[in-house]
Amino acid sequence: MSSCNIQAWIFVRGDSMGLPGKNVKPLCGKPLIAYTIEAAKKCRFIKDIFVSTDSPTVAATAEQYGAIVPFLRPDALADIMMPIVHSWRHAIEWNRQQSEFPQMDIMVSLPVTTPLRKPQDITDAIELYLNGDCDSVVAVTASNRNPAYDMVYCNEAGYANLILPNDDPLARKRKTRPYDITNVVHVSSCDYIMQEDNYLRGRVKTFEVPRERSLDIRDIWDFKLAEIILQSQE
Q1: Region of poorest pLDDT, from 47-56, 76-85, 178-187
Q2: Of 34, 131, 142, 175, which one's alpha carbon is 20 to 30 angstroms from that of 74?
């Protein structure tokens, strides 16, 4: 694994339903996508940073901050209902067909909507993957909810039911602590991505990141919260 080629890929849709134009929207003086590109640049394992997008505007902004945009992604892959694995595979297939860059062994996917990640988060994820016996590595953060005792659904009569019913009063203490999967970083081999539709079915290792670094910007309120956190760090 020591000689494998590791590439960072940032997959970005041009449109955003929750916050139009958010991926290039200025956040404390820089477009949102710049934070992810700059974090990847500071990871010692990563040499090349690629952006896959359907948007010429996003592409131009990404190139301005030093990322490589080798193509404009097909519109079908940018559909919000399209599973991300298809975009991953599209990037891998492109990589295997070209000769300008080394063939990628490991893909590090860095969603643009998580700008508060640290470069060390990316490094830690890659190190865990290289040193561990696993198919994938994802970053997680402690969840505020636990389906064992404080998550419900409404039945046909309109009454609340526990998602995981349990009559044991000690269930809360006995249940394993749940974690939320974040968009901080995902690491997996290209071979595994090409053969498995759902990376969570494999041997997935996790590492925990603080809640503030896992903030995923989906709407204007997430964006404002990111501004507050960044301003507090100045």
Answers
A1: 76-85
A2: 34
Cβ within 8 Å of residue 94, ≥6 positions away: 70, 71
Q: Looking at residue 174, what is its pLDDT? A: 54
Sheet holding 204-208, edge to edge: 49-53, 6-12, 106-109, 179-189, 136-142, 204-208
Tokens describing residue 21: 């134009």
Residue in 11, 160, 31 with CA at minimum distance from that of residue 91:
11
Q: What percent of the chain has pLDDT over 70?
A: 92
Residue 97: its H or E element: helix 84-97
Residues 123/6, Cβ–Cβ less than 8 Å: no
pLDDT in tens, 190-230: 999 999 988 888 899 999 999 999 999 999 999 999 999 99
Contact 230, 196 (CB under 8 A): no
Strands (E), the chain: 6-12, 26-27, 30-31, 49-53, 106-109, 136-142, 152-154, 160-162, 179-189, 204-208
Q: With 90 as the cut, is the pLDDT of residue 177 above it?
A: no
End-to-end CA distance of the chain: 38
Please, are residues 61 and 84 in contact by the beta-carbon 8 Å criterion?
Answer: no
Q: Which residue ranges make up each domain of the chain?
A: 6-140+179-232, 144-177
Query: What is the dotted CATH code of the domain comprising 6-140+179-232?
Result: 3.90.550.10
With a CB cutoff of 8 Å and minimum separation 6, the contacts of 172 are 146, 148, 149
